[in-house]
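Assess this today:

___
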Amino acid sequence: MTMPAPRVAPLRADCVADSAGGLTFDVTANGACDVAHLVLRRSDGHDEVSLPLTPATDGRLRAALPSTVALPEGRWDAYACVAGDEPRRLVPGTTDLRSLAARAPSGSRGHVAVRIPYATRQGNLTVRSWLRAPHAEARELRAGSAGLTVRGRVYGTGLAPEAYAELRRRSLPGPVRRTEVTADQAEFGLAVSYAVLEPGVWDLWLRPGGEAGPRVRIARLLDDVADKKPVFTYPRTRVQTPDGPVEAGPYYTRDNDLSVSVTREGS
């Protein structure tokens, strides 16, 4: 009779974020380890980052991912490779992300880098990374009876007098809706009227330099919430349009980008 293989306890990693955008991982591993690495693999399988794990306090192993190490945008699954064994998937231990809640990057490098560790539905440790150059941060949303107002800040570029915002209907050809932007140094404000939007999903973009400048996706990244969609919810409202009544409201996508959903009433 073949005996089942003994169950191996998962390796746990405590994570601490710093205000510069770096992460520290403390992995609980029994026994001395001459060679150990923490491995981050992007979920699409195209990239891998290996960080040395070195002895820390209480028999744990520590790896650091400083903000200066590039981590392309995506979802990165975390593994530990200890003493030459096969990489083992890590599960989250204690996570301290308090520094992210008040983070205000300077944008002087021309980009904003954000890394947020979180637990997947299977209970594993994954790091969500964003790398935006430049970046338009949505800081305050107000969903009213006729539309949406957005206050935000741009990083990595300036706001020209000719700056404006665009709404682009996703996956469908058609006209781009333009809306004015108010600017106060790096701070911007804009208003979206639901009545001018046909049914569909409309993505919000900032054009900080006008037509000649970059198109920057408006998103909310600078906090400690990896997935905004189920956490930040906003009311939908009924609006009369030339094509009939619709229901509209803002939401954050799976990538924490800001969009507006417009549906025909009753659909």
Summary: The first strand starts at residue 11 and ends at 17. The radius of gyration is 22 Å. The chain has two domains: 11-132, 135-264. Residues 30 and 59 are 7 Å apart (CA to CA).
